[in-house]
Design goal:
The protein has 385 residues and is an alpha/beta fold. It has 2 domains: 171 residues, Rossmann fold; 199 residues, Dehydroquinate synthase-like - alpha domain (Dehydroquinate synthase-like, alpha domain), CATH 1.20.1090.10. It is 50% helix and 11% strand. The protein contains 15 helices and 8 strands. A hairpin with a 4-residue loop joins strand 6 and strand 7. It is globular and about 60 Å long. Bound molecules: fe (ii) ion. The site of fe (ii) ion has 5 residues, from helix 7 and helix 11. This is Iron-containing alcohol dehydrogenase. Belongs to the iron-containing alcohol dehydrogenase family. Keywords: NAD, Oxidoreductase.
């Protein structure tokens, strides 16, 4: 098959890896330059930003902060960050947090030096030249944004999510320090962890997959299925935290050069209407979409079931698929993921609109089984019961 796989992100992983930030930064920019730390109020509050700021200022860098970042980050937040970037004469960015600060940092790295509006980039009126250097330090194990070329941003006026996607948006460096994830609460561990599992499953099965993505996705699925329940039950389990960061990284390397698919299309529709956290939205739809997709390619889905250890070589295709579907419902249930019907703010009258938004998502054509509004609506109605 013809494919291209590309990832130019330097990856440094290990306990205490965040202490390597200043030496790595020294390879990239002048020692007295201004660095913008992009985080969010929650990450700052639990004390993950202060030590990294002290580490940078102790090495001579001037630090400015930007933490006006929502869970589903907005276009105006990115534009405000870009303004601060320019006013402060910023040279490089460090993102600390989950997917939202990392995606906002990517947008600021683009909009800060280049200017322009989101429309300019979507419609191709401005080039992606001069993207500022960016180092990502994820504090959750899920998004994989530290190694991907995309940033998902919500346009506040229309409640629509857009994805900026370009090779130059891929972070220059990803520093993965599992110690930073130990304080993440159980509910966020669960939601972000299932997001990573969905990245691996969708990257592995989607129409844009390739052999390298599949290798990364298979390794990610094995680790996440084994270690996410352990990390959820005991946040202090360092081995589980470490394996989850690895799994999330591998899942990012899987879908980052392939695509996501119908689970994300539904999750982004739910998130854009109600601000449902991305991981929870993905977890809600995962078993339903896998069940739907299995009808298209039974051999592929039996293979998926064996990779995740829901089935073994002796199980027939039918048994393997059945075990995986039941296994995924049980998997999200043990992580205390709510059902769609349990989200009290979701209105039955909005399901059709959600199905329309999902159908328009740019990743709908990537789904392994053709899927249209009527199919999305069917899944939403089943999930809402
Ligand atoms: Fe995701």
């Amino acid at each position: 098959m013809n494919f291209e796989y590309f990832c130019n992100t330097r990856i440094k992983m290990g306990a205490g890896a965040s202490n390597a930030l200043a030496p790595i930064m020294a390879d990239m920019i002048n020692p007295d330059a201004t660095v913008m730390i992009v985080s969010d109020p929650g990450v700052r509050k639990i004390g993950l930003v202060d030590p990294i700021e002290a580490h940078l200022t102790g090495s001579g860098y001037k630090v400015v902060h930007f933490n006006e970042v929502s869970p589903n980050p907005r276009d105006h937040e990115c534009l405000a960050g870009a303004e601060v970037f320019r006013q402060e004469g910023t040279t490089a960015l460090v993102a600390i947090g989950g997917g939202s600060p990392m995606d906002v940092a990517k947008a600021i790295a683009l909009l800060g030096p280049n200017g322009g509006s989101f429309e300019d980039y979507i419609e191709g009126r401005v080039t992606y030249a001069n993207v500022a250097p960016l180092i990502c330090i994820p504090t959750t194990a899920g998004t994989g944004s530290e190694v991907t070329r995309s940033a998902v941003i919500t346009l506040a006026e229309t409640h629509t999510k857009i994805t900026l996607k370009h090779e130059l948006l891929r972070p220059d460096v990803a520093i993965l320090d599992p110690e930073l994830t130990v304080s993440v609460p159980g509910s966020i561990t669960a939601a972000t962890g299932v997001d990573a599992l969905v990245h691996a499953i969708e990257g592995y099965t989607c129409k844009l997959t390739n052999p390298v993505s599949k290798a990364m996705g298979a390794a990610a699925m094995k680790e996440i299925v084994e270690y996410l329940p352990k990390a959820y039950r005991n946040g202090a389990d360092f081995e589980a935290r470490s394996k989850m960061q690895e799994g999330s990284l591998l899942a990012g390397l899987c879908f980052g050069s392939a695509d996501v698919a119908a689970v994300h299309c539904l999750a982004e529709a739910l998130g854009s209407l109600y601000d449902t956290p991305h991981g929870i939205a993905n977890a809600i739809f995962l078993p339903y979409v896998v069940q739907y997709n299995a009808e298209e390619d039974r051999a592929l889905h039996a293979e998926l079931s064996r990779i995740m250890n829901f089935a073994d070589e002796l199980d027939s295709e039918t048994v393997a698929i059945d075990k995986m579907v039941r296994g995924l419902y049980a998997f999200t249930e043990q992580l205390d993921i709510p059902t769609l019907g349990e989200l009290s703010y979701v209105k039955a009258s909005d399901l059709e609109h959600m199905a329309e938004i999902a159908e328009r998502n740019g990743s709908t054509p990537s789904n392994v089984r053709p899927i249209a509004k009527v199919d999305y609506l069917n899944i939403l109605e089943q999930a809402f019961l």
